[in-house]
């Protein structure tokens, strides 16, 4: 665990920043602003943590050019503290664990499996007949790759990932532990007495290039045709993508979102955590849906939606504010009724 | 990948339909109405896709008898387009991958395990001592079957399924990748200082015949006695079923639903996506609960519920409609107040 | 499956209770009050089940000292029926399945792995180089332990658990099937065109002593530093804990909760099922958040919150009650308007 150490000045130079304070102090690790100890470098972007900057024990703090709060630590001013800190974190990071070198002797490789150069396959991985694995892809321990599945180059499948038969991944795809690609969609024909008969799920899942999918997320195969995850899409943990869903390029799906069957999500859409989307809908390009919302209608491109059922966010906020004032409205209503009673009584008297 | 091809006329005959258009054209695959190419057959049920029928590139479209919209494709009229298309999809489907033939040499089979005729066990499956597996059941790669678990005939357990000790599955049960049956229920005794002591979870899970459970869904074993999934129940992905829950026959539980401990769900109930149900409740037979609802009270048989907390759907819709008009009510309230002010001022003048 | 049998009198003595009825009757199993058969002992705490006590077929029922309802069964009065029943259930429970004895020959153990006395490792477990496993810990079949991970003493990792590199578990930790510890956090730098670049997730997860984590729950590693699960924390199934979250000691996180990045949850907090918590928040010690709530602001210590967005529960209940009366308010508003119309008309006449 030999980690690099460097002076704050050297660090500032390597992350493209400007020092204010002791350039000669040594730093050897990154840490959060509250946990940081002497020898650590930390950073701050969110103004919520401004008070912490004053009292941090860190040796150095990465801040934005315009930062104007005091600190006992040396400041490193940069254009983008978030990105600069990411660079610093990489400089000090322990090396990643080694990938499996070649195919582990315990891996079970089916007939006719094709593997590109430099593929690593971990212990107890199972790759079924006819699958194709692109160059430099890492198939970790306990991964299951089904019959005739196609996986691109430079992918990384973490332990316990399952890819069902005939599904296809692009290049540079990352699947975290326990991801399931290509399980059967949830489809039945219901008899009048409620008994359901399974509809065969004959399609596949196609995952584009540069996709990352979080731990234990599930993506169902199409009833027929394809469930599609576009290029550059990032999906968090425990997300459910139903059969025949299409997700456009570079969309972001946060943890525990569920998207029902045959819905089309546009490009660069953001679905925040725990959002639910009904089936057979269209979410337009660039739309943003706030956390826990329930989308039950098509969403126009570029909209910002909130609530269950989801409505435009500014409308949601206005209605929510009124709703929070319900007790007050109730009191006003009673007050008006009393004033009317009085008026009516008086006019009855004068009538 | 030799797939069958046939003429539209032949297809119509095999799915029990009636042709309108070129009966001699060849089709060799199924596809969604928007993705379809020449040579594909597609279908339409939902009127949302009516416009797509006009411009589809498909060679043939399966429609209902009463369909009255134009299309350049050959139409195949059937009584039930959904069911007919399912048949067509099966006719053109690639053959499913072969099941494991017999017990893979790497499978670890405990002492006294009993297996019926024609059981297939994939590589690296582990079946613990005393388990019983019914005839023709498929235990895929990486499946774990615990001690004395009992699995019926003609079941299919996909890779990475876990069955804990003593749990029991009926016949024709399908468990998708990553399903966990029989994990400990979530039960503790809390001391006044907040420290919790685990309550042993000594019961089991009993799953009826013809049940299908989706990927990464979890079903906890009973604290004592049984957690029960009735016959014909269909459960989607990422669902949580807590200890001692009982689900009646032929109920449908959509993705990401959570049911808390000791709740009884009746027969033919439908819980839509992301519904949460509190513990110790009864959901009556045939009830339907809309997506994202939160059920905090017993639900009478046959009710249709919505909202969090859930109320009868028609009431939810009426209240929701009023809530959406809050800004307008607020304006009316202010208008009434102004009119009253004016009246009072005037009467004060005449008083 | 030789299970112990004893008289009700003997059982009462062993669980510290007092008999009312036939002390000599034999009991040999525990069961729920509705499922119980002759020969079973059951219990009741919740008054909801009072009617069931009268008609139970159980031989004995464990009740509180103050219980005053009739029953044909023998009653065993105890101070704490819940705890007493737990003891009874343990007395009658079938023995747990045997743990793996030593390291299974199929387990793949990396270089330099250190294991304490009495560690059990199941078939096809993979423990990567440099990992350390404390005494008496059980690593079940198909578990993956990453490079340099550290696991304490007396832990139990059920099948298909994944621990990524360098993460650390305390003593007596229980991880149920499919738990993922240390998957990458969900962090990207977004370019103006929406293309996202992965931010390396360089930190780890640290899990305290006496923690239990439910099936298929995911805990992401920190972007840098640590994601922390405090001592005695109990987490249910299918929960998502994002990067850099800190959970204080003895908190309880119910099924399907999601906690976004960098949020700090205090000690002895209870988050009920399906709660969502936004990122960068602080939930104070002892706070309770009701089911399906969405927490979007800091929560003061000891608060009880409900709703999405979450507000103090008593306020939520008041506003909710008013909201349910919206149709009535609407009618009152219309009534007032009519009365005002009448008054104005009359005054116009007299004006």
pLDDT averaged over residues of chain A? 94
Total count of helical runs of at least 4 residues of chain A: 5
Helix content of chain A: 10-25%
Largest sheet of chain A: 11 strands, mixed
Distance between the termini of chain A: 96 Å
Q: Tell me the number of structural domains of chain A.
A: 3
Q: What is the name of the CATH topology of the largest domain in chain A?
A: UDP N-Acetylglucosamine Acyltransferase, domain 1
Low-confidence stretches of chain A: none
> Roughly what fraction of the amino acids of chain A lie in strands?
25-35%
Shape of chain A: flat
Strand order of the largest sheet of chain A: 10-13-16-19-24-27-30-33-36-38-39
Quaternary structure state of the chains depicted: homotrimer
Can you walk through the features of this model?
The structure is a homotrimer of 351-residue chains. Chain A is built from five helices and 39 strands. Chain A is of the alpha/beta class and 351 residues long. The first copy, chain A, folds into three domains: 6-92, MurE/MurF, N-terminal domain (Udp-n-acetylmuramoylalanyl-d-glutamate--2,6- Diaminopimelate Ligase, Chain: A, domain 1, 3-Layer(aba) Sandwich), CATH 3.40.1390.10; 108-313, Hexapeptide repeat proteins (UDP N-Acetylglucosamine Acyltransferase, domain 1), CATH 2.160.10.10; 318-351. In chain A, the strands form six sheets. An eleven-stranded mixed β-sheet of chain A has the order 10-13-16-19-24-27-30-33-36-38-39, with helices on one face. Chain A is flat, with a radius of gyration of 28 Å. The model of chain A has no long low-confidence stretch (mean pLDDT 94). Chains in contact: A-B, A-C, B-C.
